[in-house]
């Protein structure tokens, strides 16, 4: 079952699991030890991340290791990019407006000073 990657990253515990495993491959027990919750609760988070494709579980001997697969986060980046472009345009327009207002204000002060 494929889950929505946005749902996966909506939870702070899952974001922290991603962060941990992105920096270092870990076995399931090591991941669970990092959190102040039951192992079954951590396992549920890991299951959701696996279903989203953000984690891959690999069996090595008797242990199971989590490995990050962050390619799915591109979907989040692509979605956020449209808003970055929107706000960049809006902020650039605001900057232009404020610069124009500042110039007009400076010119008005210079004009008044010449009259005096």
UniProtKB/TrEMBL annotation:
Gene3D superfamilies: Winged helix-like DNA-binding domain superfamily/Winged helix DNA-binding domain
InterPro entries xref list: ArsR-like_HTH, HTH_ArsR_DNA-bd_dom, WH-like_DNA-bd_sf, WH_DNA-bd_sf
SMART domains xref list: HTH_ARSR
Residue stretches making up the HTH arsR-type domain: 1-88
Protein name: Metalloregulator ArsR/SmtB family transcription factor
Organism listed in the record: Mucilaginibacter sabulilitoris
